[in-house]
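Appendix B. One record, verbatim.
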Amino acid sequence: MILIELFVPAGVLDHAQKEEAGKRLVDALMGTEDAHAEAVMDSARALTQVLVHEPAAWITGDRDPVDPADPPRYLVRVSAPAAWRKEMSGHAIDRLTQALAETEAAAGRDPGRLRDRPHALVHVVGIAEGSLGMHGRAMGSLDFIQHMTAPHRDAIAHLSTDDLPPGTVIDPVCGMTVDLASTDLTLEIDGTVHGFCNGQCRRIFADEHGVPLKA
């Protein structure tokens, strides 16, 4: 479960522009390269929410109100399970800033200023384990990954590996291609070496197959 909140001064974006900006932010956060299985990405998108806020007052640290006539400032806050925060932050800040730059360009304003001036702030916030809920119950980060991947696990198991580069495998949980030479996130079961894109996919697979992991 991911919540993206976009704060922008009142009147800068009309309704259609807000919707388009929201779509850009989701697309940017989901990414396109090194993608998980398409069905898993669709499940992740279904759990991603975007809210656009127009604060009644917006005061900068130097005490000057943000003038709506000036080039607009932006603040994006991304809330996700804490276990995902560090890995997510590495690409989210750059990609979300680029999505805002595209919004500026579409409005006929200078997109480059968001890289040159502190007019686009991105906060990635980790929500403590057990503090997110769905279906009326608290869920941890592993629960959300299981929710997103479980319905597609059989299809992932039958993905073709004919075109994979040598030394790579498909993560059996999420469907991402993994280079075995560059990761220690592996697990051997019945003579088959499985590779994983992150420790949580490895944990889920190990638990489902009754394989204990070393502490």
